[in-house]
Each structure stands twice: as structure tokens, then as C-alpha cells.
Amino acid sequence: MRAALAVHRDSGRGAALSIAGVVAERLREHVEHLELCTGALPEHGFDVLVALGGDGAVHQAVQHCAGTGVALGLVTAGNGNDFARALGIPLDPLGSLETLLTGLREGRRRHLDLGKAGSRWFATVLCAGFDAGVARRAATLRRPRGPHRYDVAVVAELARFRPRPVTVQTEHERFELDATLVAIGNTPYYGGGMPICPAARPDDGLFDVTIVGAASRLDLVRMLPKLRTGAHLAHRAVRTLRAREIRLGGAELPVAADGEILGPSPVLARCVPGALTMVA
User: Fold this and answer.
1) CATH architecture of 121-274
2) Is the dihedral of CA 247, 235, 138, 185 positive or negative?
3) Long-range contacts of range 149-156, CB-CB < 8 Å, 24 or more positions apart?
4) How much is the pLDDT for 70?
5) CA distance linking residue 220 with residue 167, whole number of Å
6) pTM for this structure?
7) 245 backbone dihedrals φ, ψ, rounded to 5°
8) pLDDT at 141
9) Which of 82, 143, 230, 238 could form a disulfide with 195 if both were Cys (CB 3.0 to 4.6 A apart)?
10) Domain boundaries, the chain
11) The predicted structure's pLDDT at residue 142
12) What number is the average pLDDT over the span 59-70?
């Protein structure tokens, strides 16, 4: 077995880089050849790509693994770790490393869905509107570390964001509304553990979509604590649906996927069943 270890230098404010040596040493006990990568990944020639980092590292890795049969392994060392959380992978680096080594040793593999927007693949949630603005702002913050960065970014975005007219089209329906945010979930979580699409599963061939319509600042302030438990779905401004494909048009909205900024809408997202092979 040939493997590549992709170290995401910025993950966890340097946490990934600090444990890269230990991870590489353990991996070499289970593979014939290991290539350590802190920059560009090799184009081909490996069977497993191990991402060392958080959701940003996963986002980069799935661009290489999607549709290729190259298996993705994950050692968690990020701030949010929402992909790992959705799959039940331990959130501490050493715990996730032991889980990965067991999967390699026993040859376990799992096939998961991915989302695709244009040429970009995503593993967790694509969001447009308020939440994408929060992701964009959180990426610029140096403090605090961890999930609380998102809380600070939320407060900052509350002062400036307004609902905008959006057109939503799926394979089943088309409608228009003033939207605060649209979250397209391949998995449930974003923002360091918020279950924005609580029922989303990465192996059912469908997105779970959460739409927050026109909401005032007071509505959002009241709704935000409920995001941590999934109780936001009961709010009168929230609508949910399931779809294989969803197109967002209308006003330009900021768009992010896996916490990475993609650019403004319009955007077309498709769920691609079984696109990712994962070391289970």
C-alpha cells in the first residue's frame, strides 16, 4: 500500500504541523511507502491519502480523491472538525490516528456521497447567505481559537447582513423567497458542531437543505442558541427539503463549502452518490 500524508499547515493554529512527525512514523508501520506532503500533492501513484488537519484539509483532499478510488484517511487536527464529527471519528488527533490505523490494518472502506458545485467538491455543508458571511469573517479572525471563533463572527455579521431575494430550484420544485441563509447538507454539521441540517447523511444520495427565510436580527439572535441542538428547525422562518440537485439564483449571496469561500451565487450543487472512498 502506498500512501501520501497531506499536512495542512494552518490547521488548529499549527497543531497539525506539530504532530506530523508522530503521525508519519505510525503510518510507516502500516504502509509500504509514505510520501509526506506539506504543499502540493502528488498527482498519482498512491492508494490512500491521509489528511492531517480539519475541514479545510478535508476539502482539499476530496478534490484529489473524489471519483478516483483513492481512499481518504483523516487525522483530526482542526478547529471545527465537522466532517470527522459526522462520521463518528474521534476529534482528538491521537484517537483519530488509532482509528485510522485500525481501518488500514483491517482493510475497511466506506463509500460516501459528496456534493459538487461547479468544479469544486464538498464533503459537509455548502452554505449561502448569512452563514457563508460568518465563515468568511471567521477565517480572518486570529482569536479566539476553536468553535468560539464562529460565535464572534456571528455577532459581527449580525450588524450588516440583510435577507435577499433568492430563487430555489430542485428536481421537484421552484420557488422564490427572501432568504437569510440556505444550507445544503451532505452531512449535518458546520461551524464547529452546529447541526444546521440535523438529518443529513452522507450515504443516502440526497442533500438535506435548511432554508431560513426573511428573519430579523432579533429572530436570528433567538435562533442562534438553538443551532447547537437542532431546535432551530421549529422556527417559523425555517423551511427544510431534500433534493438531489439544488440551484440558487437571484441576488448575489456569499457562498462557502466546508468552511472554504467559493464566491458569490448563483450556484448549482449536485449530490454525487458514492463519490468518496473513505478508510472506515
Assistant:
1) Sandwich (2.60)
2) negative
3) 149/79, 149/192, 150/80, 150/191, 150/192, 150/194, 154/224
4) 96
5) 21
6) 0.92
7) -145, 140
8) 73
9) 230
10) 2-107, 121-274
11) 66
12) 95
How buried is 4 (Cβ within 10 angstroms: 0-12 exposed, 13-18 middle, 19+ buried)? buried
Question: Using CB atoms within 10 A of its CB, is residue 21 exposed (0-12), middle (13-18) or buried (19+)?
Answer: exposed
Helix, coil or strand: residue 246: strand
Q: Does residue 148 surpass a pLDDT of 70? A: no
* Planar angle of CA 274, 123, 16, nearest 5 degrees: 125
> Does 13 score more than 80 pLDDT?
no
Burial class (CB in 10 A: 0-12, 13-18, 19+), 24: middle
Sign of the torsion formed by the C-alpha atoms of 218, 221, 225 and 227: positive
What span, in angstroms and rounded, lies between the C-alpha atoms of 214 and 99?
43
Q: Please state, rounded to an integer, the average pLDDT across all residues of the chain.
A: 91
Q: Quote the CA–CA distance of 44 and 4 in Å, as a whole number.
A: 10
Cell of 10: 494552518
CA distance 201 to 143: 32
* CATH number for the domain running over 2-107: 3.40.50.10330
pLDDT exceeds 70 at position 62: yes
Which of 3, 23, 4 lies closest to 12 in space, CA to CA? 23
pLDDT score at 8 = 82
Handedness of CA 107, 108, 113, 118 (dihedral sign): negative
